[in-house]
Amino acid sequence: MSENTERPRGEMVTFSLNGSYVQADPKWSLLEAMQFYGLNIPTLCHDEGLTPYGTCRLCVVEIGKGDRSKLVASCMHPVREGLEVRSHSSRVMKTRKMIMELLVARCPSSKKLQDMASMMELKEVRFEPANDDCILCGLCVRMCEEQMAAKAIGFAGRGTDRYITTPFDMTSDECRKCGACMYICPVCELRCQGPQAETTLCSGCINTEPVCAEKYDDATCFMVPCLSCVKGPMDVK
Q1: Does the pLDDT of residue 237 top 60, yes or no?
Q2: Domain boundaries in the chain?
Q3: Which residues are CB-neighbours of 2 under 8 A, at least 6 positions away?
């Protein structure tokens, strides 16, 4: 190949996705490619109309193989020629459940988080609930700046002291009270049990996780929920 590494217009990238070779636009992220092929990849901080942010990490996938494999946020990782990607390996699903457990502990009042936890069949939260009202996903900040062209809110502080506020914590003249920040926020809607729920985790809409992963180290289908698991556990002996 010549020194110019830029691909000709229209040339696609070929990579392995769950054992099958697929093609994707070289400008796509792994998340966009997997969504194009119909895979259900959980995410909180991603929105098609906003720039990628990569903070929630729920869209994590496993790339590479053997001892050299690693977990990456698929919304931030570009598709690459010859890449090997596993979207529903046992390692990936365990990681997503751990991340979900931490998120639910932070904001147990969120219906969005509770619904996603049930989808992943999260059965316990081992951390003390913080009862916070923000997971710092940045959706509201990006929505305000990129779609509303207002920049009325932003991040302040660092580390555990980071939070979202208006400039100088004062009423912002740039805010038009359009409500876009509340519309896109994943934790604004309260869980079904209301604000005084007795348990940290609801699990009222829990789905059956793919038991096939225990045998094959990967899910063998990507339906949500898996119809075989709903009818009855598969024979994984």
Answers
A1: no
A2: 1-88, 98-134+188-212+226-237, 139-184
A3: none
